[in-house]
Amino acid sequence: MSADERLSCLIGNIYDGALDGTVWPDVLREIAGFAGGQAAGLLSKDSVSKAGTAYHQHGVDPRYMQHYAATFHKFDPMAALHFFDVGQVVSIPELVPFDEFCQGRFYREWVKPQGWLDAANVVLDKSVTSYAYLSIIRAESAGMVDDEMRRRMSLIAPHVRRAVLIGRVIDLKTTEAATLADTLDGLSAAMFLVDAVGRVIHANAAGHAVLGADDYLRAAGGRLIAGDPHANKVLREVFATAGEGDAAVGVKGIAVPLVARGGERHVAHVLPLTSGARRRARAAYAAVAALFVHKASLDTPSPPEVIARSYSLTPTELRILLAVVEVGGVPEVAEALGVSSETIKTHLGRVYAKTGTHRQADLVKLVAGFSSPLAG
Fold first, then answer.
1. What mean pLDDT do residues 261-283 have?
2. Which residues are CB-neighbours of 178 under 8 A, at least 6 positions away?
3. Angle at 248 between CA 247 and CA 252, to 5 degrees
4. Which of 235, 314, 335, 349 sits most deeply, having the most CB atoms within 10 A of its CB?
5. What sign does the CA torsion over 215, 220, 223, 225 have?
6. Dist. CA 25–CA 60, nearest whole Å
7. 129 pLDDT exceeds 80?
8. pLDDT tens-place string over residues 318-356
9. Secondary structure class of 187 (helix, strand, coil)
C-alpha cells in the first residue's frame, strides 16, 4: 500500500469513528503508527479542576490510566494545552520547560516508568471550562517529537476533529450501517444527505424545519444554499470533493458558521459517505455527504485564557499563578506540581513582574477580578 493509500484508508477509518465509537482504539493504533508514536488517546480535560477523562486510548497500561485518574492528572502539563489554538500541534516542551518536566512527579512516576518521553497533542475543541484533545505519545527509543511527526499530525488532526464533532452531534456509541438513515432521521439536529452538487437527497424532520424557515439555509432548485456567500462557497467545495474520497475533503468545512437573520448562530459539519460504515447510506441515497447543523454554543475565552493574554504569561507562568491561587504558598505549590521550591519562586517572580503585583494576596485579587459575574 502506498503512503497516499495508507493515509486515505486511515482517514476513512477516522470518519467511521463518528458513527461507531467502538472502532476508536483500533483507529488510534493506526494513527499512532502513522504519526510515529507508540500510544495514543482521545481525551478531555477540565481547565478548572484539571481532572482528565480518557474516552478512547491505545497502548497505555490500564493500571497507569487508573493512576492518572486518581493522582497524576494534577501534575499533567496538558493543563496548559487549553491556551493553544485548535488544530495546533503542541509538544511537551512547548507546555512546560522540559528540564522542569523531567524533574516533576508526573515524568518520574508516570511517564518514565512506561518508557515514554514526549507527546504530540492537538486541541480538537474547547469551551470556557474544558477541552478535548488528541495525544500521540512518543517512546524514549523514538526520541522527541520532530518535524515529520508534526507534519503527519497536521494531516490527520482536521479529520479527527471533524469526526469527534460529528460524533458529539450524533451522540451514539454504535450505529449499524443498515439502520444509518433511520438513526439519522431521529436526530434533534438538522441532517441533510446531499450529492456532489449539493442537491438534497434526503433530510430528517429537523432538516425540513430548517428549510421551511427559509433563513440561513434554504433549497433552491433542490440544491442546498447557505445564506452567507462565504459559507455557501465552502459547503459547495466540500460537497464536490466528498465524492472523490475521504482524504479529498481536507481541512475545509470542519465547522462552517451559519448566522440566521435574527443573529442566532449555527454550525454545520460535513461527514463524507465514501467508505466503511457510511457506504450503504451512499449507495441507498446516491449521496456523497451528510451535513449536520446544530445551534452553536457560546464561545467565550475562559478567565485563565484572558489572564494569559492580558499579561503575556507563558503556559508555565499561568500554571504557577493558578496554582498559587488554588493551592497556597510556594512549598505547597512545589509539592503539588512535583518541582522544587526554587523553580516555583523563579516563575513566580516573573509573574509578579508581568502583572505588576508583589504579594500572593494580590494574585488572588487579580484572578478574582477576571472571574465571570455569571459564574455560579
1. 81
2. 280
3. 105
4. 235
5. negative
6. 11
7. no
8. 888 888 887 788 888 887 777 888 888 999 999 999 999
9. coil
Q: How far apart are CA 72 and CA 59, in angstroms?
A: 18
- The residues near 210 (Cβ < 8 Å, ≥ 6 apart) are 190, 216, 217, 293
> Distance of CA 321 to CAs 286, 318, 355, Å?
56, 5, 10
**Nearest-angstrom CA–CA distance, 367 and 212:** 47
C-alpha cell at position 289? 455527504
Q: What is the rounded CA–CA span in Å between residue 205 and residue 187?
A: 8
Cell of 356: 505588576
Which residue(s) pair with 266 in the sheet?
Answer: 258, 295
> Residues near 45 by Cβ (< 8 Å), separated by ≥ 6?
51, 52, 53, 73, 76, 78, 79, 81, 82, 130, 131, 133
Neighbouring-strand partners of residue 202: 193
CA 227 – CA 231 distance, rounded (Å): 8
- The C-alpha torsion from 68 through 71 and 75 to 78, rounded to 10°, is 30
Which residue, 113, 153, 152, is CA-closest to 133?
Answer: 153
How far is the first Cα of the chain from the last one, in angstroms, to the nearest whole number? 55
Could you give all domains of the chain from N- to C-terminal order, each with its CATH number? 3-170 (3.30.450.80), 177-295 (3.30.450), 303-369 (1.10.10.10)
- Pull the grid cell for residue 165: 464533532
Lowest mean pLDDT among 130-144, 228-242, 261-275, 362-376: 362-376
